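Sorry to interrupt, but I need a hand with the structure work. Could you add the entry underneath, on a fresh line?
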Amino acid sequence: MQLYLPIAELPVNIFVIFLMGGAVGFLSGLFGIGGGFLLTPLLIFSGIPPAVSVATVTTQVVASSASAVVSYWRRKAIDHKLAAILLVGGVLGSFVGVVLFDVLQTLGQLDLVISLSYVTFLGTIGGLMLFESIRAIRRRRSGVAPKARKPGQHNWIHGLPLKVRFRRSKLYVSVIPVVGLGAIIGFLGTVLGIGGGFMMVPALIYLLRVPTSIVIGTSLFQILFTMAAATVFHSMGTKTVDIVLALTLMIGGVIGAQFGARMGQNLRGDQLRLLLAVLVLGVGLRFAVDLLLVPEDLYSIAVSNRVGS
């Protein structure tokens, strides 16, 4: 059954898109991630223009984060003050990202920048995750207990000025790294179509020393509103959000996430990280192969109308 996408300006098989959303939703529930960094490449590989893929996935991230935020809100597991400062940085980063996105699209370099960014980004993150997960598995098999971090341990970030007290997280840190972290996540989310939770959570835990019980809810709260801002910026600025595509992906994602969450309970943390690392590296490798292959059509006039207008 064919479904026409008005913004992407091409017909797609509705069942393929639905299953794609379901598969990413399944992986999201399995690994506890937003899935944007997986869904965007899958849409690009299926023939959806990169600009539409990136912009539309921001709506998917908003939908997948909303229900989870409500749950954490009810459990009072969100540091609203910390999330608000992260959000300030996130909105600023999203705005800068949309401006760069529009400039690259006008110059006709957006596809290349997205591909190069994904190869670098996924290759680095996937490699680090693979190394850490293999080391954790070896340590577990050898019977060596991991070294626990002592509470109250500080790093160089805690010596920065402009400190603010976050009572729910029991922190007293500078707002500089908090705003900076939010800006980075907002920027990447707008340009690459990723929620950034898989970067935000480790950064809050290891850099800012936010308690684990507060981290996930606070991260989701910030990502929800940052990606909502990115969706608005894309809709008003680049006009590349395809609502038909977004709704189809959302329905499949919600269903798939339920099955993934159930299966994830049967796997250990190190096994999940190893599987996710292999998946991330696989997507990055696919982008690298596409960059090296000679395209079938060496010439394109796709941006001529936009530049001339």
Notes: Residues 148-152, 298-309 have pLDDT under 50 and may be disordered. The two ends are 35 Å apart (CA to CA). Residues 10-142+153-292 form one domain. The first strand starts at residue 2 and ends at 5.
